[in-house]
Amino acid sequence: MTNTAYCEVPGSDIPRGTMARSARIAALPLAFGGRAVAGWGRRIAGADAEQVSASATERNAEQLFAVLGQLKGGAMKVGQALSVYDSMIPAEIAEPYKRALAKLQSAGPTMPVRAVHQVLAQQLGRDWQRRFRSFDDTPAAAASVGQVHHAVWADGREVAVKVQYPGAGQALDADLRTLERFSTLFTLIVPALDAKALMRELRDRMLDELDYCAEADRQRRFAAAYAGDPYLYVPAVVASAPKVIVSEWLDGVPLGPMTARPAGDAVEQARRDEWAHTIIETMFSSPARVGMLHADPHPGNFMVLSDGRLAMIDFGAVAELPDGFPPVLARILRHVADAEPAKMMRLMLAEGFVGGDVPAEDVLRYIGALADPLRTDTFRFHRAWMAQQGSRVMDLRGRAFRETGRSLALPAQHMLIVRVLSGWTNILAQLDCTVAARALADEWLF
Asked: Domain residue spans in the chain?
């Protein structure tokens, strides 16, 4: 039996076989090592060491994220998960990685038209074209396990048609198993990242993303809970099948590009602050209002509509929290924000966040600054602040990490929520915004 990650489709440049996909990823360490040897030779020959290092870093970054983007599936998803840590990438390698990450967030190879039509026929019936007045074969957006097409539904509504790549399930499993074997590659981006733990958690969530019927149901729940909200909009679901979702088409501007440039004037800055307020409030309030947390933190999942509201899209990765935000995490966060080391430490020890004998004051000092947004009435999230926290917490050679950081752990049951919170913190830092985050935490968490 042939093991394929994507169906055989003429003209597709996406590697389909598991062996072919694994070979692409496995070749990365060899290429990186080859560049290191070549650079060593160039330095002996008198080339400038910094220029050689910068050149190798840029080529490594471009190749790493080009491969992740070409493979799609789990490979592209891991790249997107890493992309939210943009603000924490070491300054000396930041620019090439930012360029590569930006390409990965917004682009990727597309499915051939024939393959798209095959999926639609399988999911919506052979007469699927009768459901639409028109259907644009050119995709409007490409994601990790599917792509989106603009169409007009039979009743005249403009709709977004999300079509899953054939064989996406095999691709997810094959990629994550291979990437876990080469997880040390990702320490190039986030030095202290526990990449194996991240990929285990991603694997659990990503299998859920393959069921578009379940995703559509989650989107309906969010849409109902936030119906009439003056700041957040969730598009309505028009129809769904296991591999296709048809939902309301939105005309808007992706939030992602706005994180790459400073605010143009005071008016735009005020809008950014309002969008950030909406993001934080949604993140804090949705466990109570919907019983779920949107678990895919990257700016591509938000759009700015013409009336200034934010639209939240893509509900493939969602954490079910029927009892709301975990009280233990909320209490630890409050003790950290309020500088209460003894109370913080008792909870962290009881929940398995700390192993070994380490002073509570040292733990508070090590992680405490990450609660800065909750210590004042308003707080400005910006890149310099995030970079400072990242360099301090992720300095593997520093004394703080050796004596304190190594004693900390993240229990599996809390990993997803912490990843989402840290991911959005990084994105808000990229957006450069000022928010009254403590008031929102007091209302929804504390």
From this structure: 18-107+174-189, 113-164+211-248, 254-446
